[in-house]
Write a structure and sequence with these properties.
The complex is a heterodimer of chains A (868) and B (157). Helices cover 42% and strands 25% of the residues of chain A. With 868 residues, chain A is of the alpha+beta class. Classes of the chains: A alpha+beta (868), B alpha+beta (157).
């Protein structure tokens, strides 16, 4: 291709992108002459160069656009319609440029449609020109520009979009010429400091530096093996120079993230017009730099997310008015450095994610069972938007909502070792947070050995290393073959690397001894068991050979310092593999993560029933422990019953595998509710412990709430709510027939699913109708949604808004100002009680004081009944 | 350099690097051969197709080693046997074809070349670009493109 033409194309592509951005800015600030001059100048430059290169189609089109813009310069009011027309012309110019690049000639045809339309609008606005602001007639400027262009037909300067001399001449409206001149000079200084380098040249340089790093590593390895060598000093020098060179070359690949954002203002403007929603796009941190290759990979996902925000995130102006928000929605893009990562946030102040609808869809799609979904926090439910084909948009629009989206975004990010999170508050907005590695070429990796082979595990996915020995505190335990490790009161699922890679030569899969590489990918934590861990090494990631690229477990290979080829484990590939084979284990794992916040010291009764595994039940739920003579147990109506304190109470086996003892004392756990009691038959009452633990929810087994590490042992926490109806077939009807005319409506707010699941049945058993909410915001939404509640029971210690804040909000709303609120807390101090009184809590109850809570509820609802 | 010159002079002839795999003589067009080397320190690749013998470092390049016996459906060589590798390049990537014994460079004229006999074993026929009649034996011409390309196909299936 002609050198001149190539330069023209490169230059014009850049200019056109700037015009796009500037025009949108101009539409918003029609009185900003600087922007207009900028646009005008760029279009004029293109026009001038087209004339020089004999490109008549482009010249005619840009000329018409320029004519219209010159009217704006003359003070004609700017209309959206006119800007749209100019933008359409810019699009046509882009199309022509693309053709030109492919074929090196302008495509046949003409642009009469646009040229005429532009002319019409020019004529229409031209008929009523305002008074000229400029003292200098615009024609003069054009002539000057043309002269300049003739002398420099193909500008080579990249970083300054305009020739500095022009900046002075064509900005006559600005009185302060001296300032302008200064600006121009500083521009030119920047311009002279940068040169245009072909990307291939940089890529080649990068490859060579990567090779150099590898050679350096090899030399260092030799140096390590030979202690006394005269090479030592020069080797160290070589090493540091290489490191600097590597850093320097990496810098040349760095580009501001703003280059990926350039197209966004235009996209948002078009969307805004198309959807009829005024949108403001705020961009912060555009100068944040990251690797060109990474930038290319995130460009499209970013555009997709901004489109999503505009289409789904923001409400229509009318709805926004109703919600008390400004009509104009805001989309905020921000980027900043954090560790070895770039964090990009795409946030909108729109309607937020509709957790209820997502839950509904997830259940409908079979992604989760209804009871599982009920146990999930909002945050967990929101994660479903990253599932393939998941779209909550009721209608499909041309913009988004086709159900291809967030899963692709997440996949793209995972591919490069990045991550995405969503945070959303219903009614207030959604924010996506992308964590992107600065570069892909060189990563720090942990070198491990498994079954005689070495592998590299990228450091970014490794959270810690644990040495497992048979007798140490970190020992590996098994639940029917599945290996787990207790790590800070949590169970970590373990997998042997050699098993995952199917290179296990040993018949016996003994995971008793080894190193555990604890990895975190997305929300999943798991441990990979390896035989040995060597060291960390900066490795240059080389792509796998084409034949091996479809093995998901590896993301590349490299040559180590000692010259051996080593495979790089792909953490995402491993995670996906695990999801495929053991999804249940991992869901349990991820589901548990937020629950740890609900960890609290509580008295638990430990017992065994049907299996050697320990079971536990909160002691606060148990009325009495009894050991009875089995002879006293009677069979009536095919059920076991016991004469107990003048009552006939039903006995329920805690586990269907067990039997009531024939002789000796039979231990029972007695549960009572008002005047009804039942007894749970167990094999052995083991202990009562008081300790802080985290329950990992898992509701697949009926009667089991989840599992927890109690006293260092994996223990099943049983669900009393499951057994009550077994004891009393008429439990529900009996509940409904009780004398209370209309049962009191209780709103139970607790961020920990464990406590919601534990307290709700207790309160229901006491005759209340219970609705649960997992956060203060969810509770407020329910209250504001018009549902009537007689009393609110809220946990005090919750993330984001705590119980005090919730109470204040309830008080602030005139509709709920008198609604009784009972606070629950594990920790009750005098200050807390005082603070509770100030915000308007009616009562304050310890979290495990069940009778206290029921008494408080009765008191509050009785008061309400009297008042009513 | 001298090779290509000779190629240019010899209009209707072609030079081959010969190698034996499982008793059969194969010829690889010399312009495809980059190296002949003794494979050292193979890194095995778990989960890879069976014909992938592993990866190795050849002067700073990562080379994918292909076990020709496996590739051609022949029985594996006895453990511990010394093998050789022929380095070839295909679509910008380096491969090492593991063979039993490396032979010599033969210049063969087109007159001794024939198409594949129709009863040739399909696995060999697929990667064969024809057969040369030598005095004592037959030489199968290896089509390197097909050899490496079909490996991808097999793997994808």
């Amino acid at each position: 291709m002609d050198e001149l033409l190539r330069d023209f194309l490169t230059e014009t592509h850049e200019n056109i992108d700037v015009v796009d951005v500037e025009l949108v800015r101009f539409e918003q600030n029609p009185n900003d002459a600087t922007i207009l001059n900028n646009v005008f100048r760029l279009v004029h430059t293109i026009k001038g160069t087209c004339g020089f290169l004999n490109l008549p189609r482009l010249e005619a089109l840009t000329h018409a656009a320029e004519t219209l813009m010159s009217k704006f310069r003359d003070g004609t009011p700017v209309t959206g319609e006119a800007v749209t027309l100019v933008l359409a012309s810019i699009d046509r110019v882009k199309m022509l440029l693309d053709q030109l690049e492919k074929n090196e000639v302008e495509p046949a045809g003409d642009d009469k449609d646009l040229v005429e339309a532009l002319g019409r609008v020019s004529a229409a606005v031209g008929s009523a020109p305002k008074e000229l602001k400029d003292s200098q007639p615009s024609e003069d400027i054009i002539e000057q520009l043309e002269r300049t262009n003739r002398s420099a037909p193909a500008p080579h300067i990249r970083s300054a979009p305009q020739a500095p001399s022009l900046a002075v001449q064509i900005d006559p409206t600005d009185g302060d010429d001296a300032d302008r001149r200064d600006d121009g000079r500083s521009d030119s200084r920047i311009a002279n400091q940068s040169i245009r380098v072909n990307v291939d040249t940089l890529e080649h340089l990068m490859t060579m530096v990567s090779e150099l790093v590898l050679t350096r590593n090899q030399l260092l390895d030799i140096g390590r093996r030979n202690v006394d060598t005269e090479f030592k000093a020069p080797l160290q020098r070589l090493s540091s120079v290489t490191a600097e060179l590597q850093e320097g070359v990496m810098k040349t690949r760095m580009q501001p993230i703003g280059t990926a954002w350039q197209k966004l203002p235009r996209i948002v403007r078009d969307l805004s017009t198309e959807l009829g929603k005024p949108v403001e796009l705020v961009m912060q941190g555009a100068e944040t730099e990251l690797d060109r290759q990474v930038l290319d990979l995130i460009k499209d996902p970013l555009i997709h997310m901004v489109r999503n925000s505009a289409d789904h995130g923001l409400e229509m102006p009318a709805d926004r008015r109703v919600a008390g928000k400004p009509e104009q929605g805001t989309i905020r893009l921000a980027a900043w450095h954090e560790g070895g990562y770039i964090v990009v946030e795409v946030a909108d102040d729109g309607r937020g994610l509709d957790t209820a609808r997502i839950k509904e869809l997830a259940i409908a799609r079979g992604l989760v069972s209804a009871p599982d979904a009920d146990a999930m926090t909002d945050l967990q439910i929101q994660q479903f938007i990253f599932f393939p084909g998941f779209s909550t948009s009721a209608k499909i629009t041309s913009v988004s909502g086709r159900g291809v989206g967030m899963d692709v975004v997440r996949a793209n990010l995972n591919q490069i070792g990045g991550a995405i999170e969503v945070r959303s508050v219903f009614g207030q907005g959604t924010s996506f947070i992308l964590k992107i590695p600065l570069t892909l070429a060189i990563v720090s990796a942990l070198i491990v050995q498994s079954d005689g082979d070495r592998f590299a595990i990228p450091q970014f996915a490794v959270t810690e290393l644990v040495r497992a020995r048979k007798d140490s505190e970190h020992r590996i335990e098994r639940i029917k073959g599945a290996a787990v490790l207790r790590l800070r009161n949590k169970l970590l699922p373990l997998f042997r690397l050699s098993t995952l890679l199917m290179i296990n030569t040993a018949v016996d899969d003994d995971v008793g001894i080894g190193f555990i590489v604890v990895m975190q990918v997305g929300g999943q934590s798991f441990g990979i068991v390896v035989d040995a861990v060597f060291h960390t090494e900066e490795i240059v990631v080389k792509p796998m050979s084409g034949k091996l690229r479809n093995i998901p477990m590896f993301c590349g290979n490299t040559i180590l310092g000692d010259g051996a080829v080593i495979l790089i484990i792909d953490p995402n590939g491993v995670a996906q593999q695990l999801v495929g084979t053991t999804s249940r284990q991992l869901t349990a794992e991820t589901a548990s993560t937020p629950e740890t916040t609900g960890a609290a010291a509580e008295s638990m009764l430990l017992f065994r029933a049907g299996s050697p595994q320990l079971k536990a039940v909160p002691l606060s739920l148990v009325t009495r422990l009894e050991v009875v003579d089995p002879k006293k147990i009677e069979r009536a109506d095919n059920r076991s019953v016991l004469q107990y304190r003048g009552q006939l109470i039903p006995l329920i086996l805690a586990n269907s595998d067990m039997k009531i003892r024939e002789s000796g004392g039979q231990p029972l756990l007695v549960f009572s509710n008002e005047n009804r009691s039942m007894a749970l038959v167990v094999d052995e009452i083991v202990d009562i412990v008081e300790e802080q633990f985290a329950v990992e929810l898992e509701s697949a087994t009926a009667g089991i709430l989840g599992s927890a590490v109690i006293k260092g042992q994996a223990t099943e926490v049983i669900d009393i709510a499951h057994y009550l109806p077994l004891a009393f077939e008429d439990w529900q009807t009996w509940q409904d027939q009780r004398p209370t005319a209309s049962p009191s409506q209780v709103l139970l707010v607790d961020d920990a699913a464990f406590f919601r699941n534990m307290l709700a049945p207790v309160l229901r058993a006491a005759g209340f109708v219970v609705t649960t909410a997992s956060s203060a915001n969810e509770a407020l939404a329910l209250l504001q949604g018009g549902r009537r509640f007689d009393v609110v029971v809220t946990d005090i210690d919750m993330p984001e808004r705590d119980g005090f804040a919730l109470t204040s909000e309830v008080r602030a709303n005139p509709r709920t100002a008198n609604l009784p609120v009972i606070g629950l807390s594990t920790l009750i101090s005098a200050e807390a009680i005082e603070r509770g009184r100030q915000v308007g809590l009616h009562d304050y109850v310890a979290k495990f004081d069940r009778p206290g809570l029921i008494a408080a509820l009765k008191e509050q609802t009785a008061g309400l009944a009297k008042a009513a | 350099m001298s090779v290509s010159e000779e190629n240019g002079q010899q209009e209707n002839g072609q030079e081959y690097v010969t190698a034996t795999v499982g008793g059969q003589l194969f010829g690889i067009p010399i312009n495809r051969v980059q190296d002949v080397f003794a494979p050292d320190r193979l890194t095995r690749v778990p989960l890879a197709p069976p014909e992938i013998a592993g990866l190795l470092n050849l002067r700073g390049r990562i080379v994918t080693a292909i076990d020709m016996r496996r590739r051609l459906g022949l029985e594996a060589l006895a453990a511990g046997s010394q093998r050789m590798a022929v380095g070839v390049e295909c679509r910008g990537e380096s491969y090492g074809l593991l063979i039993d014994v490396i032979g010599e460079v033969l210049k063969l004229s087109d007159s001794s070349r024939e198409d594949n006999p129709i009863n040739l074993d399909p696995e060999i026929a697929h990667v064969s670009a024809g057969v040369h009649r030598l005095d004592n034996e037959l030489l199968v011409i290896l089509d390197v493109e097909r050899l490496l390309e079909s490996a991808v196909r097999v793997e994808a299936a």
